[in-house]
Design goal:
single chain, about 220 residues, alpha+beta, four-stranded mixed beta sheet, 10 helices, 4 strands, globular
Length: about 220
Amino acid sequence: ELGLVFTFLEDYYRPQVAEHGVALTWRIATLLSGGRCPLHEVRFMHRAVAPMRTYRARFDAPIIFGANDVALVVSADGLEVPISENIEELRNIATRYLEGRQPRERAGITVRVRSALEALLGTGASGQRELARTLHLHPRTLQRRLREAGTTFEAIKDEVRRDLAQRYLSNPDLPLNQITVLLDYSEQSALGRSCRRWFDATPQQIRARLSCNSMDGSDL
């Protein structure tokens, strides 16, 4: 087994920051491998700051708290898994990062919220309070600006989930339980209900439809 160890300056170690970084790294690894790289263990230096079910929803592996380091542990064979050809999401993450380096004034609040949500979904930190912190805004300020823009946090999050669900379901290598986690749903039945609301179909039906459409070049 091999461990990807995260290094933090002692004075700047924060449990939430550590957990967010590990969850985001594992999300990217899952996308790169198409969900084919098994996770053996997750280690954190701090004590649990959330219910265990929250951690189990993000990491399908034993979780060790109070460890000597922060790490994701995978098998050596897992590192040999070929990178999935469907890495559009990784390109989008990189693009959003580069765009984020531009002056914030260039992007409207809805664009900024959408971009931040696309990055946060799948890390367990995609709530309105966490997103406001990411944008360096007070939650009430964020709520007010979205209201002035004629939308809400919930509406934008629903749109982002819909777009990502369609993208993830088009990848046959991603199991539905992994897509559930990547969209920050607590259970697979919630994903099913959303798919029926968005597309009037179950996730399995959508996947089959996307598979057929990819063969003839049409969209969902």
